[in-house]
Design goal:
This is Protease HtpX homolog. Belongs to the peptidase M48B family. Keywords: Cell membrane, Hydrolase, Membrane, Metal-binding, Metalloprotease, Protease, Transmembrane, Transmembrane helix, Zinc. Its cofactor is Zn(2+). Residues 282-337 are annotated as: Disordered. This protein is mainly alpha-helical. It has one domain (2-291). It is 58% helix and 5% strand. The chain contains 12 helices and 4 strands. A 4-stranded mixed sheet has the order 1-2-4-3, with helices on both faces. Helix 1 runs antiparallel to helix 7, helix 5 (121-137) packs across helix 8 and helix 7 (175-213) crosses helix 10. The longest helix is centred in the middle third of the chain and has 39 residues, at 175-213. The radius of gyration is 22 Å and the shape is elongated.
Protein backbone atom coordinates (compact mmCIF):
# COMPACT_ATOMS: atom_id res chain seq x y z
CA UNK A 1 0.00 0.00 0.00
CA UNK A 2 2.80 2.45 0.87
CA UNK A 3 4.56 1.64 -2.43
CA UNK A 4 1.37 2.38 -4.36
CA UNK A 5 0.90 5.62 -2.46
CA UNK A 6 4.48 6.70 -3.19
CA UNK A 7 4.02 5.91 -6.89
CA UNK A 8 0.80 7.94 -6.98
CA UNK A 9 2.50 10.90 -5.30
CA UNK A 10 5.39 10.78 -7.76
CA UNK A 11 2.91 10.61 -10.65
CA UNK A 12 1.11 13.64 -9.21
CA UNK A 13 4.37 15.59 -9.03
CA UNK A 14 5.12 14.72 -12.67
CA UNK A 15 1.67 15.88 -13.72
CA UNK A 16 2.10 19.06 -11.67
CA UNK A 17 5.38 19.77 -13.41
CA UNK A 18 3.79 19.36 -16.84
CA UNK A 19 0.87 21.57 -15.81
CA UNK A 20 3.20 24.36 -14.67
CA UNK A 21 5.03 24.22 -17.99
CA UNK A 22 1.72 24.44 -19.80
CA UNK A 23 0.56 27.42 -17.72
CA UNK A 24 3.78 29.32 -18.31
CA UNK A 25 3.64 28.35 -21.96
CA UNK A 26 7.38 28.20 -22.50
CA UNK A 27 8.26 24.74 -23.76
CA UNK A 28 11.93 25.66 -24.10
CA UNK A 29 12.07 27.21 -20.65
CA UNK A 30 10.41 24.14 -19.18
CA UNK A 31 13.02 21.88 -20.76
CA UNK A 32 15.94 24.04 -19.59
CA UNK A 33 14.59 24.23 -16.05
CA UNK A 34 14.11 20.48 -15.89
CA UNK A 35 17.61 19.77 -17.21
CA UNK A 36 19.25 22.18 -14.76
CA UNK A 37 17.28 20.81 -11.80
CA UNK A 38 18.08 17.25 -12.87
CA UNK A 39 21.80 18.07 -13.11
CA UNK A 40 21.80 19.62 -9.64
CA UNK A 41 20.04 16.63 -8.13
CA UNK A 42 22.22 14.15 -10.03
CA UNK A 43 25.24 15.76 -8.41
CA UNK A 44 23.51 15.52 -5.03
CA UNK A 45 22.61 11.89 -5.67
CA UNK A 46 26.26 10.92 -6.22
CA UNK A 47 27.69 13.13 -3.48
CA UNK A 48 24.91 13.60 -0.92
CA UNK A 49 26.19 10.83 1.37
CA UNK A 50 29.62 12.45 1.72
CA UNK A 51 28.08 15.89 2.17
CA UNK A 52 25.63 14.78 4.87
CA UNK A 53 28.23 12.80 6.79
CA UNK A 54 30.64 15.73 6.66
CA UNK A 55 27.98 18.22 7.84
CA UNK A 56 27.32 16.00 10.85
CA UNK A 57 31.03 15.50 11.63
CA UNK A 58 30.50 11.75 11.33
CA UNK A 59 33.53 9.48 11.77
CA UNK A 60 33.74 5.98 10.35
CA UNK A 61 34.17 3.15 12.88
CA UNK A 62 34.98 -0.54 12.64
CA UNK A 63 35.11 -3.72 14.72
CA UNK A 64 37.94 -2.41 16.88
CA UNK A 65 36.71 1.12 17.59
CA UNK A 66 33.02 0.26 18.16
CA UNK A 67 32.74 -3.55 18.38
CA UNK A 68 29.18 -3.90 19.72
CA UNK A 69 27.66 -1.24 17.46
CA UNK A 70 29.48 -2.59 14.39
CA UNK A 71 28.48 -6.18 15.18
CA UNK A 72 24.80 -5.24 15.45
CA UNK A 73 24.85 -3.55 12.03
CA UNK A 74 26.69 -6.51 10.50
CA UNK A 75 24.17 -9.04 11.85
CA UNK A 76 21.23 -6.94 10.68
CA UNK A 77 22.74 -6.51 7.20
CA UNK A 78 23.21 -10.28 7.02
CA UNK A 79 19.59 -10.88 8.02
CA UNK A 80 18.39 -8.35 5.43
CA UNK A 81 20.56 -9.84 2.68
CA UNK A 82 22.38 -6.53 2.19
CA UNK A 83 26.07 -5.77 1.65
CA UNK A 84 27.77 -4.50 4.80
CA UNK A 85 27.36 -0.70 4.82
CA UNK A 86 29.93 1.72 6.14
CA UNK A 87 29.27 2.49 9.80
CA UNK A 88 29.63 5.97 11.27
CA UNK A 89 29.38 7.64 14.67
CA UNK A 90 28.29 11.23 15.26
CA UNK A 91 29.48 13.01 18.39
CA UNK A 92 26.11 14.43 19.39
CA UNK A 93 24.18 13.98 22.66
CA UNK A 94 20.82 13.90 20.87
CA UNK A 95 19.85 10.27 20.19
CA UNK A 96 19.21 9.88 16.47
CA UNK A 97 20.33 8.00 13.38
CA UNK A 98 20.12 8.08 9.60
CA UNK A 99 21.10 6.17 6.48
CA UNK A 100 22.53 7.58 3.29
CA UNK A 101 24.04 6.38 0.03
CA UNK A 102 22.75 6.02 -3.50
CA UNK A 103 22.26 2.23 -3.39
CA UNK A 104 22.87 -0.78 -1.11
CA UNK A 105 26.40 -1.20 -2.50
CA UNK A 106 27.33 2.36 -1.51
CA UNK A 107 25.34 2.76 1.69
CA UNK A 108 26.30 4.17 5.06
CA UNK A 109 24.49 4.20 8.40
CA UNK A 110 25.21 6.66 11.18
CA UNK A 111 24.17 6.81 14.82
CA UNK A 112 24.84 9.50 17.39
CA UNK A 113 26.75 8.91 20.59
CA UNK A 114 23.56 9.94 22.37
CA UNK A 115 21.74 7.02 20.76
CA UNK A 116 24.34 4.49 21.94
CA UNK A 117 24.44 5.97 25.43
CA UNK A 118 20.70 6.25 26.04
CA UNK A 119 19.29 3.18 24.29
CA UNK A 120 19.71 -0.51 25.05
CA UNK A 121 21.38 -2.95 22.66
CA UNK A 122 17.94 -4.16 21.58
CA UNK A 123 16.64 -0.66 20.90
CA UNK A 124 19.77 0.23 18.93
CA UNK A 125 19.21 -2.93 16.85
CA UNK A 126 15.64 -1.79 16.12
CA UNK A 127 16.87 1.65 15.02
CA UNK A 128 19.61 0.31 12.77
CA UNK A 129 17.19 -2.21 11.23
CA UNK A 130 14.97 0.75 10.32
CA UNK A 131 17.90 2.52 8.67
CA UNK A 132 18.87 -0.61 6.73
CA UNK A 133 15.26 -0.81 5.54
CA UNK A 134 15.71 2.64 3.97
CA UNK A 135 18.80 1.29 2.22
CA UNK A 136 16.96 -1.81 1.00
CA UNK A 137 14.01 0.25 -0.24
CA UNK A 138 16.36 2.63 -2.09
CA UNK A 139 14.59 5.55 -0.48
CA UNK A 140 17.50 7.84 -1.33
CA UNK A 141 16.73 7.27 -5.00
CA UNK A 142 13.01 7.90 -4.45
CA UNK A 143 13.65 11.16 -2.65
CA UNK A 144 16.16 12.26 -5.31
CA UNK A 145 13.57 11.79 -8.06
CA UNK A 146 11.08 13.73 -5.96
CA UNK A 147 13.56 16.53 -5.35
CA UNK A 148 14.38 16.70 -9.08
CA UNK A 149 10.75 17.26 -10.04
CA UNK A 150 10.14 19.67 -7.16
CA UNK A 151 13.28 21.62 -8.07
CA UNK A 152 12.17 21.87 -11.68
CA UNK A 153 8.75 23.18 -10.60
CA UNK A 154 10.35 25.81 -8.37
CA UNK A 155 12.72 26.85 -11.14
CA UNK A 156 9.85 27.25 -13.59
CA UNK A 157 8.03 29.37 -11.03
CA UNK A 158 11.10 31.60 -10.68
CA UNK A 159 11.31 31.97 -14.46
CA UNK A 160 7.65 33.00 -14.55
CA UNK A 161 8.15 35.53 -11.74
CA UNK A 162 11.27 37.22 -13.10
CA UNK A 163 10.29 37.12 -16.76
CA UNK A 164 6.79 38.38 -16.12
CA UNK A 165 5.03 35.44 -17.65
CA UNK A 166 7.44 34.39 -20.33
CA UNK A 167 6.74 34.61 -24.03
CA UNK A 168 3.32 36.14 -24.75
CA UNK A 169 3.19 34.21 -28.01
CA UNK A 170 2.74 30.98 -26.05
CA UNK A 171 -1.01 31.83 -25.62
CA UNK A 172 -1.38 30.96 -21.96
CA UNK A 173 -5.10 30.01 -21.82
CA UNK A 174 -5.56 31.12 -18.19
CA UNK A 175 -3.75 34.44 -18.40
CA UNK A 176 -2.76 36.05 -15.09
CA UNK A 177 -4.62 33.43 -13.04
CA UNK A 178 -2.51 30.70 -14.63
CA UNK A 179 0.67 32.63 -13.89
CA UNK A 180 -0.30 33.06 -10.22
CA UNK A 181 -1.00 29.34 -9.94
CA UNK A 182 2.39 28.55 -11.49
CA UNK A 183 4.32 31.01 -9.31
CA UNK A 184 2.60 30.58 -5.94
CA UNK A 185 0.54 27.40 -5.76
CA UNK A 186 2.59 24.85 -7.69
CA UNK A 187 5.87 25.10 -5.64
CA UNK A 188 3.87 24.92 -2.41
CA UNK A 189 1.99 21.85 -3.64
CA UNK A 190 5.28 20.22 -4.67
CA UNK A 191 6.69 20.83 -1.17
CA UNK A 192 3.63 19.18 0.41
CA UNK A 193 3.99 16.14 -1.85
CA UNK A 194 7.68 15.85 -0.94
CA UNK A 195 6.78 15.81 2.73
CA UNK A 196 4.02 13.27 2.16
CA UNK A 197 6.44 10.94 0.38
CA UNK A 198 8.93 11.31 3.23
CA UNK A 199 6.26 10.35 5.78
CA UNK A 200 5.19 7.37 3.67
CA UNK A 201 8.76 6.05 3.43
CA UNK A 202 9.14 6.24 7.22
CA UNK A 203 6.14 3.96 7.75
CA UNK A 204 7.53 1.49 5.21
CA UNK A 205 10.96 1.54 6.86
CA UNK A 206 9.38 0.92 10.27
CA UNK A 207 7.58 -2.15 8.97
CA UNK A 208 10.57 -3.57 7.11
CA UNK A 209 12.93 -2.74 9.98
CA UNK A 210 10.71 -4.72 12.36
CA UNK A 211 10.81 -7.63 9.91
CA UNK A 212 14.60 -7.50 9.66
CA UNK A 213 15.22 -7.65 13.40
CA UNK A 214 12.08 -9.70 14.03
CA UNK A 215 11.20 -7.63 17.11
CA UNK A 216 8.77 -4.74 16.45
CA UNK A 217 8.72 -3.72 20.10
CA UNK A 218 12.47 -3.03 20.07
CA UNK A 219 11.92 -0.31 17.47
CA UNK A 220 8.74 0.92 19.19
CA UNK A 221 10.60 1.39 22.48
CA UNK A 222 13.46 3.13 20.67
CA UNK A 223 11.13 5.57 18.90
CA UNK A 224 9.52 6.51 22.21
CA UNK A 225 12.89 7.18 23.87
CA UNK A 226 14.29 9.11 20.92
CA UNK A 227 11.20 11.30 20.56
CA UNK A 228 11.23 12.23 24.25
CA UNK A 229 14.93 13.07 24.19
CA UNK A 230 14.77 15.05 20.94
CA UNK A 231 12.29 17.43 22.56
CA UNK A 232 14.86 18.53 25.16
CA UNK A 233 18.26 17.93 23.54
CA UNK A 234 19.14 20.21 20.60
CA UNK A 235 20.98 19.14 17.48
CA UNK A 236 23.04 22.19 16.38
CA UNK A 237 24.15 20.64 13.07
CA UNK A 238 20.55 19.89 12.07
CA UNK A 239 19.44 23.37 13.16
CA UNK A 240 22.06 24.89 10.87
CA UNK A 241 21.06 22.58 8.00
CA UNK A 242 17.31 21.89 8.40
CA UNK A 243 17.18 20.24 4.97
CA UNK A 244 18.81 17.22 6.64
CA UNK A 245 15.83 16.68 8.94
CA UNK A 246 13.98 14.15 6.73
CA UNK A 247 17.02 11.84 6.85
CA UNK A 248 16.80 11.14 10.58
CA UNK A 249 14.61 8.48 12.15
CA UNK A 250 12.96 11.21 14.29
CA UNK A 251 12.83 14.86 13.26
CA UNK A 252 15.88 16.38 15.02
CA UNK A 253 14.53 19.94 14.91
CA UNK A 254 11.47 19.61 17.12
CA UNK A 255 9.11 17.00 18.55
CA UNK A 256 6.32 16.90 15.97
CA UNK A 257 3.10 15.73 17.56
CA UNK A 258 0.82 15.55 14.52
CA UNK A 259 0.69 13.80 11.16
CA UNK A 260 0.07 17.10 9.39
CA UNK A 261 0.75 18.34 5.89
CA UNK A 262 3.89 20.19 6.97
CA UNK A 263 5.65 17.42 8.90
CA UNK A 264 8.53 15.47 7.39
CA UNK A 265 7.95 12.54 9.76
CA UNK A 266 4.81 10.67 10.83
CA UNK A 267 3.44 11.11 14.31
CA UNK A 268 5.58 9.03 16.66
CA UNK A 269 2.57 7.65 18.55
CA UNK A 270 1.09 6.43 15.27
CA UNK A 271 4.35 4.70 14.36
CA UNK A 272 4.55 3.03 17.77
CA UNK A 273 0.91 1.91 17.53
CA UNK A 274 1.57 0.31 14.13
CA UNK A 275 4.59 -1.56 15.51
CA UNK A 276 2.64 -2.73 18.56
CA UNK A 277 -0.08 -4.02 16.23
CA UNK A 278 2.56 -6.00 14.33
CA UNK A 279 3.72 -7.52 17.63
CA UNK A 280 0.15 -8.44 18.59
CA UNK A 281 -0.25 -10.27 15.28
CA UNK A 282 2.68 -12.52 16.18
CA UNK A 283 5.47 -10.73 14.36
CA UNK A 284 8.78 -11.46 16.07
CA UNK A 285 8.91 -15.23 16.36
CA UNK A 286 12.18 -16.47 14.94
CA UNK A 287 13.70 -12.99 15.08
CA UNK A 288 16.78 -11.71 16.83
CA UNK A 289 17.12 -12.25 20.56
CA UNK A 290 18.75 -10.22 23.30
CA UNK A 291 21.62 -12.71 23.22
CA UNK A 292 22.22 -11.86 19.53
CA UNK A 293 22.71 -8.16 20.22
CA UNK A 294 24.41 -8.44 23.61
CA UNK A 295 27.00 -11.02 22.57
CA UNK A 296 30.48 -9.52 22.46
CA UNK A 297 32.27 -10.06 19.12
CA UNK A 298 34.97 -12.66 19.63
CA UNK A 299 37.60 -10.66 17.75
CA UNK A 300 37.08 -7.67 20.02
CA UNK A 301 37.07 -9.91 23.09
CA UNK A 302 40.43 -11.39 22.16
CA UNK A 303 42.22 -8.12 21.40
CA UNK A 304 40.92 -5.65 23.97
CA UNK A 305 42.04 -5.41 27.59
CA UNK A 306 39.55 -6.19 30.32
CA UNK A 307 37.40 -3.59 31.92
CA UNK A 308 34.69 -1.31 30.58
CA UNK A 309 34.60 0.31 27.14
CA UNK A 310 32.61 0.21 23.90
CA UNK A 311 29.32 2.01 23.47
CA UNK A 312 27.65 -0.13 26.17
CA UNK A 313 30.49 -0.95 28.50
CA UNK A 314 32.44 -3.77 27.01
CA UNK A 315 36.12 -4.05 27.95
CA UNK A 316 37.89 -0.86 28.98
CA UNK A 317 41.37 -0.09 27.65
CA UNK A 318 44.18 0.52 30.08
CA UNK A 319 44.59 4.03 28.62
CA UNK A 320 41.93 6.71 29.24
CA UNK A 321 38.96 6.60 26.89
CA UNK A 322 38.30 9.49 24.52
CA UNK A 323 34.65 8.57 23.95
CA UNK A 324 31.86 6.44 25.44
CA UNK A 325 32.38 3.80 22.74
CA UNK A 326 35.95 3.18 23.85
CA UNK A 327 38.13 4.69 21.14
CA UNK A 328 41.70 4.94 22.43
CA UNK A 329 43.53 8.28 22.32
CA UNK A 330 46.27 6.67 20.24
CA UNK A 331 43.78 5.55 17.60
CA UNK A 332 42.16 7.56 14.77
CA UNK A 333 40.97 10.92 16.00
CA UNK A 334 37.45 12.30 15.71
CA UNK A 335 35.75 15.56 16.65
CA UNK A 336 35.29 14.30 20.24
CA UNK A 337 39.00 13.54 20.82
Amino acid sequence: MNIIRTAMLLAFMTALFMAVGYLIGGAHGMLIAFLVAAAMNLFSYWNADKMVLRMNNAVEVDERSAPEYYAIVRELARRAGLPMPKVYLIDNPQPNAFATGRNPQNAAVAASTGLLERLSHEEVAGVMAHELAHVQHRDTLTMTITATIAGAISMLANFAFFLGGGNRENNNPLGMVGMLVAVLVAPFAAMLVQMAISRTREYSADQRGAEICGQPLWLASALDKIARNVERIPNPEAERNPAMAPLFIINPLSGERMDNLFSTHPNTENRIAALEEMARKGMGSGGMTSRDVNARPSAARDTTPRGESGPWGASKPSEPDSGPWGRKPTGPKGPWS
